[in-house]
Amino acid sequence: MQRKNLSYFELLVTAAFACARHRQMLNLYNGRTSPEPDRAGGVAVSSLRALAAECKAQGRDARTSPLHESFGPLAVHYAEAYEQWRPIECKELTPKAIFEAVSKGNKLTWGEWTIKASRRQEMTDGYGLPAWDRMVTVTNDAGFKMVVEYASQPFFRAREIYKAVTGSAFSGDDGLGLDEPHYYDLGNEGE
C-alpha cells in the first residue's frame, strides 16, 4: 500500500478503515485458522505507524481526533510509534518526569542531558529471568554515557537516572512509591 504524500487526514482515515477491516476479519473468522485476520492486522498496524510518523512530523496527535476511537485495541500501536523518541524538553527534572518519559519511550532533554529509552525488548531482570522492558541511555554534552536496564524496576531505575544526572538523590517524596516486588521476593520460588 502506497502511503507517500498522503495528508494527515488521508492517513487518519486509512488507519481507521484498516482497523475496522481487522475487526471485521476477526469477527468473520472467529477463531478459525486463516491468514486474513493476521494480514489485516499487519496492514492496520502499518497504517497506524505511518499516521504516527506523519503526526510527529507535523506536531499533531491523532489521539485528539474523534476517529481515534475507531482504532480500538490497536490504538496502542499508534501511541507507541508516536511516543517513541518523541522529544520532550524538561524544565524541572524529577524521578517522576524521568519515569513517565521512559515509560512512553520519549527522548527527554534537560539542559545538556539526554535520556533516551529504547523500544521494548527482551532482557534479563535482577534474578536473571527474561523480562520485557526498555534500556535507557543517559548522555550529556561533555561525553558522559550510561546505559541503564533495571528490568521490572521502573521506579528504582528513574531514581538512579536522576541521581546520575543531578549528582544526588531526589529530596522529598518523588510520587513514585515502590516497585512491585519480584516474583522471587514473594517467596514463590518453588511454584
Question: Could you write a compact summary of the structure shown?
Answer:
The chain is of the alpha+beta class and 191 residues long. It has five helices and seven strands, in the order H-H-H-E-H-E-E-E-E-E-E-H.
Note down, in words, how this protein is organized:
The chain is an alpha+beta fold and 191 residues long. It has two domains: 8-83; 87-186, no CATH class. The chain is built from five helices and seven strands, in the order αααβαββββββα. It has helices at residues 8-29, 36-58, 75-83, 95-104, 154-166; strands at residues 87-89, 107-110, 113-117, 121-124, 130-133, 136-140, 145-148. The protein has a five-stranded mixed β-sheet. Helix 1 (8-29) packs antiparallel against helix 2 and helix 2 (36-58) runs parallel beside helix 3. It is globular and about 55 Å long.
**Numbering strands along the chain, what is their spatial order in the largest sheet?**
1-2-3-6-7
Element-level helix/strand string: HHHEHEEEEEEH
Strand content: 15-25%
**Principal-axis shape:** globular
Question: Main sheet, how many strands, which sense, barrel?
Answer: 5 strands, mixed
Number of strands: 7
Oligomeric state of shown chains: single chain
Broad structural category: alpha+beta
**Backbone CA Rg:** 20 Å
Number of contiguous helices: 5
Helix fraction, binned, reads: 40-55%
The overall average pLDDT, rounded, is: 91
Unreliably modeled segments:
none
End-to-end distance: 49 Å
Count of the separate structural domains: 2
